[in-house]
TrEMBL record:
Its main location: secreted. Residues 534-731 form the Cartilage intermediate layer protein 1/2 C-terminal domain. The keyword tRNA processing does not apply. This is Cartilage intermediate layer protein 1. Transmembrane segments: none annotated. PANTHER family: CARTILAGE INTERMEDIATE LAYER PROTEIN 1 (PTHR15031:SF3), CARTILAGE INTERMEDIATE LAYER PROTEIN CLIP (PTHR15031). Keywords: Extracellular matrix, Glycoprotein, Secreted. It comes from Tinamus guttatus (White-throated tinamou). Residues 13-84 form the Cartilage intermediate layer protein 1/2 domain. InterPro entries: CILP-1/2_8th, CILP-1/2_b-sand_dom2, CILP-1/2_C, CILP-1/2_dom, CILP1/CILP2. It comes from the Eukaryota. Residues 99-186, 363-530 form the Cartilage intermediate layer protein 1/2 beta-sandwich domain.
Length: 752
């Protein structure tokens, strides 16, 4: 290895000059110098750089080195009546990468009624890696070299069909939450092995079945190859794509590998799972020479008839493998009129999922971004949101009423949104439609409204392309419907039309263009309805990028692989919603005592039906070890409601805990509350909510849901102001001259 070239690589890879990184300051911290609420704290991009060399000029070790902050300075920012310390990156250098963990977590539940998959086994390939809990929850560590995560969920009680899913995860570390919907097994029917047996594949009551399985006499045999005679218990479960609500139950990501080794998508006409056992249900049976009769009247695209194949799912790879072709055959089945069927032959010899599918090459990508609020600011984008696309086949003349779904795909938002694959058509914009939704931590995000007035600036797509795409939020025709998804016609962009070549739909070959598209390019939007909240960390940290963590005593999160979120519930008696702040300082650790870790601001939310009561779930810095894991700090937390407020009461259990766990903070000022935060993860009985996770956003999301609900295991997006409260204040009405803190910042933030 040439030493000079390696050193050059080291220097080139890590520019010592930090990049600009603006953080938002608190609402009472306007900076006249920049005429804004922003301050540049600098950042070092967490990219790989060359490590140190030993005397033999060989690469010293296998440790990954990343560009990171090598020198910080503390600056004092002047605010309204106080100074705010902040740590600014002044030099970048090559150092060991921050270790992060990649995780997928979530819950596995029945698609029909939400029944959890209790103590189900989770396999990665043929290795069991985890188990679901009593409520169907699970967490799986993603191995470092994983490119495609394939998990199979197996129900030991055999209520549900074995389910294989390809789950997107966050490459930068942290956790992504997935809700796994399981198909309930059909109750078994008894067949005579000596007779011809016909099983219908179709779940729509008023429609003909899509297909039928025909099993000839004496087709069943045991694992050892001998013919089985006697009664057979057969459970055949069909996923009918004509039922739009079943799309999220789809297994795998509907892809296959062609002869050249390229991955291509499939468009499904139905999936079925077959389970044959002996009469006692103890021995699994195989069946040969099984015929599949597919009703051609159910295939609305004529070209699909020639391309239809039978596939089976390989649960280890999550890819579909070809089982056989179909041939056309006219027959009069069940004394009906003569019909044309596609007939295929198959052998059922292991518990695999089968699929009636067509390879489809007309593909595009849809650009979607998720935001923290309806302001849709580029700085307020959220990462780790799962964007899902259901491809639907519209009913002729009724674009909002799809006839069937054909494919389900998902992707996770990164710092520049997400590009999700979907079928599209250049000649006929309405040949395919897509139904798009977004979720984070199991909670659905809201899409931009399409009625009563469609605003292209808010949707994020200019006219006339927006009209061509026929954007419709789910409540377009009925305002009582959920607002959490939208549908579009998948019109492939016309290369000769400039207004169609800047997003939000990109041709399949233009994936990199989609991924690198600037914020100003057209895109679809989702946002969180999370009310007004604000976070300030003395040591800047981007919760979406765990590699941005810095080892500092004043870091809000002391460990980059374990994030503990703490919230306190504050009740406000008074006619107005109030801004509540937590000021978090070192309390007992000699390195941090009296120094600021950070500030949290949140606006109280009025309780439904109670005009003079509101409540806030306010984050504070948990007590515990600091980054060196040497000794604990009891964080000094000051809770201050804005305006003219008086402390009425403190939760008696919380007060008793703090009295018994000295030192005790003094509380001379009745307009606020000060405590040395508890070391123990107290629960709702104390008005404290604590959650630990490998991802800070998910830890906060779960803790916040519990705090809103006032329980230690539930979740709610509706504030329950009387349950699980820690502190109660009474606040008198402010004069009209006292503008809301958040309002003043919002107005100025939009100008800046």
């Amino acid at each position: 290895i040439n030493k000079s070239s390696l050193t050059g690589r080291h220097e080139a890879a890590c520019d010592p000059q930090p990049q600009s990184h603006l953080i938002r300051l608190p609402h009472d911290c306007f900076q006249n110098a920049t005429n804004s609420f922003y301050y540049d704290v600098g950042k070092c991009p967490a990219k790989i750089c060359a490590g140190k060399l030993d005397k033999g000029l060989r690469c010293k070790d296998n440790t990954a080195y990343c560009c990171g902050v090598s020198k910080m300075e503390t600056r004092q920012i002047s605010c309204n009546g106080y100074t705010l310390p902040t740590k600014v990156a002044v030099e970048c250098g090559c150092k060991k990468c921050t270790e992060t963990k990649k995780t997928v977590r979530g819950r596995a539940i029945a698609a029909d009624n939400g029944e959890p998959l209790r103590f189900g086994h989770i396999y990665m390939g043929n290795k069991r890696v985890s188990m679901t809990g009593y409520k169907g929850t699970f967490s799986v560590h993603v191995p470092a070299d994983t490119e495609r995560l394939v998990l199979t969920f197996v129900d030991r009680l055999q209520k549900f069909v074995n389910t294989t899913k390809v789950l997107p995860f966050n490459e930068k570390g942290g956790a992504v939450f997935h809700e796994i919907k399981l198909l309930r097994k059909k109750a078994p029917v008894t067949l005579e092995s000596s007779e011809t047996n016909v099983i219908s594949l179709g779940e729509m009551e008023d429609d003909d079945p899509i297909a039928e399985l025909e099993i000839p006499p004496y087709a069943f045999y045991r694992k050892n190859g001998e013919v089985y005679t006697g009664k057979v218990k057969a459970s055949v479960t069909f996923l009918d794509p004509r039922n739009i609500s079943t799309a999220d139950v789809t297994q795998s990501d509907l892809n296959f590998v062609d002869d050249e080794g390229d991955v291509f998508p499939l468009r499904t006409y139905g999936m079925f799972s077959v389970d044959f056992t002996d009469e006692l249900g103890t021995e699994s049976l195989n069946a040969e020479e099984v015929k599949v009769h597919l009703d051609t009247a159910q295939v609305k695209m004529p070209e699909h008839l020639e391309e239809m194949k039978l596939w089976s799912l390989n649960p280890e790879t999550g890819l579909w493998e070809e089982e056989g072709d179909f041939s056309l055959e006219k027959s009069r089945r069940h004394k009906r009129e003569e019909r044309t069927f596609l007939v295929g032959n198959m052998e059922i010899k292991e518990r695999r999922l089968f699929n009636l599918d067509v390879p489809e090459s007309r593909r595009c990508y849809v650009k979607v971004r998720a935001y923290r609020s309806e302001r849709f600011l580029p700085s307020e984008q959220i990462q780790g949101v799962v964007i899902s696309v259901i491809n639907t086949e519209p009913e002729p003349g009724f674009s909002s009423n799809p006839r069937a779904w054909g494919r389900f795909d998902s992707a996770v938002t990164g710092p520049n949104g997400a590009c999700v694959p979907a079928f599209c058509d250049e000649q006929n914009p309405e040949a395919y439609a897509a139904y798009i939704l977004a979720s984070m931590g199991g909670e659905e995000l809201e899409a931009v409204a399409s009625a009563p007035k469609l605003n292209p600036n808010v949707v994020g797509v200019p006219q006339p392309y927006l009209n061509k795409l026929n954007y419709r939020r789910t409540d377009h025709e009925d305002s009582n419907t959920k607002k959490t998804a939208f549908s579009i016609s998948m019109a492939k962009p016309n290369p000769n039309s400039p207004e169609e070549n800047n997003g939000p739909i990109y041709a399949y070959e233009n994936l990199s263009e989609c991924e690198e598209a600037p914020y100003s390019a057209a895109h679809f939007r989702f946002y969180r309805v999370e009310g007004d909240m604000y976070d300030y960390n003395t040591v800047p940290f981007n919760e979406d990028d765990l590699m941005s963590w810095t080892d500092d005593y004043l870091a809000w999160w002391p460990k980059p692989m374990e994030f503990r979120a703490c919230y306190i519930k504050v009740k406000i008696n008074g006619p107005q919603e109030v801004n509540v702040r937590s000021r978090n300082m070192g309390g007992t650790h000699p390195r941090t005592i009296g120094k600021l870790y950070g500030i949290r601001d949140v606006r109280s939310i009025r309780a439904p039906g109670q005009p003079s009561v509101s409540a806030a779930c306010l984050e504070f810095k948990c007590s515990g070890m600091l980054y060196d894991q040497d000794r604990v700090d009891r964080t000094l937390v000051k809770v201050v409601p804005q305006g003219s407020c008086r402390r009425d009461s403190v939760n008696s259990m919380l007060h008793e805990y703090l009295v018994n766990h000295l030192p005790m903070a003094t509380n001379n000022d009745s307009s606020e509350y000060t405590m040395l935060a508890p070391l123990d993860p107290l629960g709702h009985n104390y008005g404290i909510y604590t959650v630990t996770d490998q991802d800070p956003r998910i830890a906060k999301e779960i803790a916040l849901g519990r705090c809103f609900d006032g329980t230690s295991d539930g979740t709610s997006r509706t504030m329950k102001s009387d349950i699980g409260v820690a502190l109660t204040f009474t606040c008198s009405e402010r004069s009209a001259a006292e503008q809301s803190a958040f309002q003043s910042q919002r107005n100025s933030g939009q100008q800046s």
